[in-house]
Structure formats: structure tokens, C-alpha cells
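Summary for the funding panel

The consortium committed to producing paired sequence-structure records for every protein in the target list. Below we show the first two records in order, beginning with the earlier of the two.
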Amino acid sequence: REFKALRVMNLKVGRAWSIRESFKPFLEYKTKRGAERFFDKYHYWATHSRLDPIRAAVKTLKRHLDRLLTYMDHRITNAVTEGLNSKIQILKANARGFRNFENYRIAILFDCEKLEIMH
């Protein structure tokens, strides 16, 4: 009974989750043409969802579609670089500043395990 009650409510979060999950196959396409066709259908569905946050997100994807389609050619991302940058930003925030660049550099190398302490 509870499940039926939830299903009848047609919750926005459920529709949003469905739209979000439906984008995953985009990254599995091997050609730009196939990915672009998929995106066109996805874009239409998402922009007609009456969910403003979804519309905004898909609008952003549409603006960067050329760069997204480049992934089909190269199959690489900058995820590792972004992760490293995040680690450096946390280090910088925790330190509340460094006396000079060399101290900052040493802290980055040490934290990213590229520098060993000599015994």
C-alpha cells in the first residue's frame, strides 16, 4: 500500500533521478554521431520535464556539447588532475598560508607522496 501511495504521488525527485540516470549511456557511445543523436533525444526529454534544476543542468551540457563529444575520440578525462587540484586546495586552506612558495611546493609534494623524508 505504501509503495502504491508513493507511486501515485509522482514525486519530482523520482523524475529527476530517472532523467539523471538516463544520461549514463551517453558515455558508452563509440561515435560522435551516435552520441549526438542520443543527446538530442535526451535534451528534448530533460527540457520538457518541468524541472527547473534539470533544465539548467541540461542547458549547461548543451553549451559544452562539443567538448563532451570530444570524449568519443580520445576516451580520456581530467578527473585525475581535478582530484590532485582538490587535494592541493585542501592543503592550502588547512595551512592558512605559507611563508614562501618553496614551503608551499614542499608541502604539496610531500602530501601527494612525491617527496620522501630522509632517514
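The next record, for a separate protein in the list, is shown here:
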Amino acid sequence: MCQQLQVSRSGFYAWRGRSPSRHAVRDRELLGQIERVFEENEERYGSPRVFKQLQQEGVRTARKRVARLMRENGLKARTTFFYRRAPGLGRRLTTIPNRRLALARPTAPDQHWAGDVTYIRLGRQWRYLSVVLDLYSRRVIGWAMGKRRSADLTRAALAMALRRRNPAPNAIFHTDRGSEYRCETLHQLLTKRQMLPSVNRPMRCTDNAEVESFFRTIKGELIHGARFGSEELLYREVGSYIRDYYNRTRLHSSLGYRSPEHYESMAA
């Protein structure tokens, strides 16, 4: 082997008997910490979030070192995919403007909310998930799941948010232009709580980018590749993900790598 590799036998035995370098020892220790963070977050974190969590725990290292060790050891975050929205739902224009365009970013919780609906496969059927986010902290403050994409579903998500929170007068509730957000009962609820409706501009799904980003995240980290044996299990897993992981634990790059709950606590 030494002859094939063109090294001396004495050099090979000297290398074999040499103690690992401090750099190699530190790599091995750091890899253990990386694997712990990676597994605690159920393989959802890529190197930027692993690095930030280690940094918050007081571990001193470099971002590129974390990325190298994860790459060399096959630690890759669960892939996130964009899902096309459910087709075939009628859209109708309204006179409601996009109020977000004229407003500065929220400076505290319960100033700007946003809602939307997406679909999740359950066997050969679909279930629909409606959510309400607080745009200050990206926290999911209301959600509902059902068999139909309907006004009742979106109203249920909004009603949950209003039970839990106390929005400021003239706070906005921003959505897309779907008919499920144009129902009279939902707007009566907004009026009762002194909230103002706001909608996307036509053909501008990026006007509601924060909720679209959440749907991309939950599908990539929880739904994609998973098999749910029952509706009850799907409902329980979605609720646990939103309540225990996304809101309380998951580090958000847009929040300075803090969780929504932590970010809101800083404003208290």
C-alpha cells in the first residue's frame, strides 16, 4: 500500500501513531453538538439555523465550519417544496384595497394580521388548512382544518385568533382575493372587532408572502413524505407543529433567528 501511494513505511507508521490534531478533536466535538441540534429539530434545520442555535447556546464556532461538517456527514435539512394552490376556485374583484401598501411595517403584535388557505393530501383526499398570522412576529394565532375550502373554515381560523388576541382598533386583516374571505359573516366579525379588511392586488400573490412562506415551511418540514393514517392524526400533528414547534421553538431568519414567541416577549 505504501508503495502504491508513494509514501515511506516509516512515514506511514509515524502518521498512524500520531495523536489527532486539536482541529480534528474540535471537529469531532462540534459534530456531536451539531447532530444534537439537528435531531432535536427533527432534521428541519439547515446549517444557518443550526449555527444560530449553537451561537445562542454559547458555542463558539464559524458558520462555514458548521456547514462543512454537516455537508461531510450527510446532515441535510428536509427538503421544502413549493405546492401549487388548489385550482378551480372562483375569484371576484372587490373594492377593498391592499391597505398594507400604504402602511409601515408593524411595530408591535396585533397591528397587522394575514390569512390564507392551502391544501394537504390525506390518502386520496384533500384537507384544507386555514391560518391567521400576526405579521409582526410571524406567529400563527389561529388555524382551522376541514374537508372543504369554505367561508366557514376561514371564519373559524379568524375566530380562534380573536379569542386569543386583542387586536388594536383599525388593525388590518390581509388576505388574498378568494371568495371564502368575502363572506358577510367574516366581515361582520371584522367590523365587530374594529378591524379593517385588506386584500392582494390582482395577480400579486407576493402581497401575502408571509403566509405563503409559512405554508411552504409546514409542508416541507411536516407534510412532505409523511403518511397520516387518519384525519385525527393529521389534525394532531399539524396542531403540535404549529403550537409546540413553529411558534415556540423554530428559529426564524426574518426575526433575527428567534422564535415568534420569543420575539413577541421582547416587545412586551
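Regarding this second record: Residues 22-40 form the longest helix (19 residues). The beta strands are 112-122, 125-134, 139-146, 172-175, 196-199.
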